[in-house]
Design brief:
about 220 residues; alpha/beta; Rossmann fold; two-stranded antiparallel ribbon; about 30% helix; globular; binds uracil
């Protein structure tokens, strides 16, 4: 797996990541969602540099211009619900992409241990396509790896891009060990060192789904 931390170089991405983490700014739900969407747009642009392109021609009012156009078929897959604003950001750039959604939630048992329950999953064929699997927070990595396995029921993708703006060190290590090495890319915006005993990322940002769409209860 090839890992890229887009937060390592200075860009406006780091401002958007700071804003989704900021406990005052994140109170504004609309701004939180819009910042995630902006982050999705930036991730999409960076990932677009790894796609395949074909030469093409476009007719302008004055003549014919040569250009290169993405030639891959893309499936954007998002883990509900925190990934939804990011998904929109990706769709703003990959507007021809097909879409997949998968619901994953933590079912806590004793000692803050949890199983990941996967429920609703809708996915077109991913055979030979570029799969972009999106989740806002990469905490333990378990839900992303399980979601990936579930999506594979729909074919074998040519390449896989995992997009997670905020990651934990443990999550990155888990995916490094549990995802295939060939043609799998992990894109993050920040890597945080700690997890709480309930596997929340520290400093992280809190519960991304609640911040985007309100409390569950
Ligand atoms: N999901 C979240 O929303 N936040 C975390 O810190 C971890 C998982």
């Amino acid at each position: 797996m090839i890992i890229t931390n887009l937060g390592d170089s200075n860009s406006v991405l780091n401002q958007f990541i700071a804003e989704i983490r900021d406990k005052d700014i994140q109170k504004n739900q609309m701004r939180f969602r819009r910042n995630l969407e902006r982050i999705g747009e930036i991730f999409a642009y960076e990932i677009s540099k790894k796609l395949n392109y074909r030469p093409a021609e476009v007719t302008t009012p004055l003549g014919i211009a040569g250009c290169s156009m993405p030639s891959d078929e893309i499936v954007l897959a998002t883990i509900l619900r925190a990934g939804l604003p990011l998904h929109n950001g990706f769709l703003n750039y990959f507007d021809h992409a097909q879409n997949a959604f998968i619901a994953a939630y933590r079912k806590y048992g004793k000692d803050n241990k949890f199983d990941i329950n996967l429920e609703y999953c809708t996915c077109p064929s991913i055979e030979g396509k570029v799969l972009i699997l999106i989740d806002t927070m990469l905490a333990t990595g378990a839900s992303l790896a399980l979601a990936y396995q579930k999506l594979l029921e729909n074919g074998t993708p040519e390449a896989v891009h995992l997009a997670c703006p905020i990651a934990s060190r443990d999550g990155v290590e888990y995916l490094s060990k549990n995802m295939p090495h060939r043609n799998v890319y992990l894109w993050v915006g920040a890597v945080d060192e700690e997890l709480t005993n309930k596997s929340y990322i520290v400093p992280g940002l809190g519960d991304a789904g609640d911040l985007a769409y309100g409390d569950k209860h």
